[in-house]
């Protein structure tokens, strides 16, 4: 790992405690090590080596005064003598499993604070509503995850929030032109991006997003927040906060959960930028339950191992597909043309991490793609990504079927494009399955 918070010097906003130590003497501890104990004191839980599941809706106060103080702090009305952070109150606000998970999620990304949510879309919708108000404009890159596209394009306008978009791989001058168009429509309150894009693996330049936010802020008197969906490369492959993002969102369902057995989401950033997000989450109840938090804390212990294994397997599968006569194009990050804009930006932001989710175009369009998908024996035909098992789907008829066909054409979605998320099976077995399935095309 190279892009971690201790190397960037990011500090936690929460007070250091014996169970929130991040160094061994003068030696900073790596996130992989901290995942085993950070944020949890076994002495407070009968010596349990792992946090128990605190399956409770509410918590007992030691006194009426303590309860009053906790609610003042939670509501931003603290007075002298109140604690720095609210104690346990009610599981919509906080819970031991929630707090352990949120503490540990900050470690890979170098965030000050994290909030977890009932789904990835719960995180995204809460973040959007925390910063955008009626009359505002969201400047977004495209393509985004299909659910996010639908939310921003079709649902947010019902609340008076407009959008302006730019294609992720567009030249800088074209992106700037779209930013100008956005400012003419209203106050730009957010720049929302996903990089690499899902499912086409195009790259958004995060340094440019930060520059645009600064420039827009000077001109309109309000700096838009830069939000990056980092689900596709995950905290192992990329740290957007180190490259100009103000806030990072995740579908925890994907690589961080990593076992296709839960739904969750997260947002993280500085304490200042997270304050309105946390406040809104408490108000509208998009919080995550204790049992799922416990499962995610378990998954974080192996996220680095799982993702690296998937990355290694994907490189081998992509190399096989690249030369297959029934595959027209493989949209794998490791095949970006050296010297190209996307190659340069990707290596600046992510180094040699190429991920394990990519799309490839099968010959004979949708009919050819469906023939291949229906013939698979090992690879699972299902939506989602980032699980231990390899998953494959046809985005045009599933995850992105709600995206306007004209937009899909503009974004170069081919009829035969399929998306695959390589898991941790042996790559030779995956290649053998693809070989027999492609013979049906």
UniProtKB/TrEMBL annotation:
Keywords assigned: Lyase, Pyridoxal phosphate
UniProt superkingdom: Bacteria
Gene3D superfamilies found in the cross-reference section: Aspartate Aminotransferase, domain 1, Type I PLP-dependent aspartate aminotransferase-like (Major domain)
GO CC annotation: cytoplasm
Protein name as catalogued: Methionine gamma-lyase
A GO term for molecular function: carbon-sulfur lyase activity
Region (Disordered): 1-23
Organism: Glycocaulis alkaliphilus
GO BP field: transsulfuration
Species lineage: Bacteria, Pseudomonadati, Pseudomonadota, Alphaproteobacteria, Maricaulales
Transmembrane segments: none
Entry's family note: Belongs to the trans-sulfuration enzymes family.
Keyword Endoplasmic reticulum in record: no
N6-(pyridoxal phosphate)lysine modified-residue sites: 254
Essential cofactor(s): pyridoxal 5'-phosphate
